[in-house]
Write a structure and sequence with these properties.
By secondary structure, the protein is an alpha+beta fold. It has helices spanning 2-17, 21-35; strands at 42-49, 56-64, 67-74, 80-86, 91-96, 105-107, 113-118.
Length: 119
């Protein structure tokens, strides 16, 4: 029994020594993904039309360097009020003029959020 356990341990060690650095990097990323700690760089944008029909608000979000970000830019003629709430309880409110952009909100990339806007 002891010989079988030692053989398994040595076999596993031998398997790792045959891996390239690319294989090990892929393995590390897979482990981070499995643990929920790997967030690749990505971005997205959404346009929210105004109920008035006179413009829209752009929402930009994504992940950069493992950190989540979110910001808005207003293209509504009469201005826009934007409210954001994250699932961790953080809340933000912006009153923007035409063409104005918010500061960038940084949160954990795994947090969901809700956006409300009026313009």
């Amino acid at each position: 029994m002891r010989a079988a356990i030692i053989a398994v341990i040595l076999g596993a060690g031998g398997a790792l020594t045959g891996c390239s650095s690319t294989d090990l990097a892929a393995f590390n990323v897979a482990m981070q993904e499995a643990n929920g700690t790997y967030w690749p760089d990505q971005s997205d944008s959404v346009s929210h039309d105004c109920a008035s029909g006179y413009g829209f608000v752009n929402e930009f979000s994504g992940v950069s360097g493992g950190e989540g970000y979110l910001y808005f830019q207003n293209w509504a003629e009469d201005g826009a009020l934007i409210e954001v709430s994250f699932e961790n309880g953080s809340e933000y409110s912006f009153d923007l003029e035409y063409g104005e952009k918010t500061y960038t909100i940084h949160e954990h990339p795994g947090y969901g959020w809700n956006t409300a806007w009026s313009c």
